[in-house]
Amino acid sequence: MPSNKFSSAKFAIGHKVRVRFGIADPDYPDIPIGGWAGQVADLEGGDPCFYLVRWNRQTLNSMAAIYRKRCERDGLDMMQMWLAEHDLEADEGGPVNIMQPTEIQTKPLNMKNQDDRIRLVFGLTHDDPVPEVKTDTLRAYRDYLAENLSFPFEAWGKKNPGRFFTTTQAVAVAGLGCDDEDERLDEHYGLICEIKIGRKRGDAPLADLEVKGLGAERQLVDDYRYWFFNWRC
């Protein structure tokens, strides 16, 4: 928000304020924030006036875990929040009495949402952040794909005289290896799949392949590629 300051504002920068009881988070209506306390860090004049409140240590330590999880998931700053003037009152001191959520409403997974389809792979809820690419998460993703992909299926890959591809060509993806083949898990290359090119056999990173057609295999592999390239450590 812009930071236009007006002398008519009830609170000035640096003033200690507290959220009135009965107020909920503007982004998460099932998270009450009554009693949260902090200092005004910025303000915007208007009707009503809005204030950027930077929470104090007691408030940060008392925040519900579900709120922290949602902020991490959605890329929100849990250290501060913009609130309207009528949501706040002067903080006269004393212990922080924070309202805790009692009726959490977790949205069901939406299979039209790519992040939610990835959460399904790991048995997570909509409130959970998408996990990073690590050996254990690669193993879980491999097991999910091995169960849901129909082998063989056709894809485009890159051809290379060495192990992996460099120029595009058609390949058939034959499998992802056995459950105990952790040598096919690589945090740099991801899942290494078995491929066929004519009579020849080889292997290639699944993330380097683009599936032909519009079937279930294409969405499954596209979702994996999206996860692998966006959640690597």
Would you write up a description of this structure?
The chain has helices at 57-62, 65-74, 114-121, 135-148, 216-230, and strands at residues 16-19, 37-44, 50-55, 80-84, 88-90, 153-159, 167-175, 185-186, 190-197, 200-205, 210-211. A hairpin with a 3-residue loop joins strand 8 (185-186) and strand 9 (190-197). The protein starts with 15 loop residues before the first strand and ends with a helix. It is elongated, with a radius of gyration of 25 Å. It has two domains: 16-90; 114-230, Roll (SH3 type barrels), CATH 2.30.30. It has five helices and eleven strands; from the N terminus they run βββααββααββββββα. It has 233 residues and is an alpha+beta fold. The longest helix is centred in the last third of the chain and has 15 residues, at 216-230. Helices cover 23% and strands 26% of the residues. The strands form two sheets. Strands 6, 7, 8, 9, 10 and 11 form a six-stranded antiparallel sheet that branches. It has a five-stranded antiparallel sheet with strand order 4-3-2-1-5.
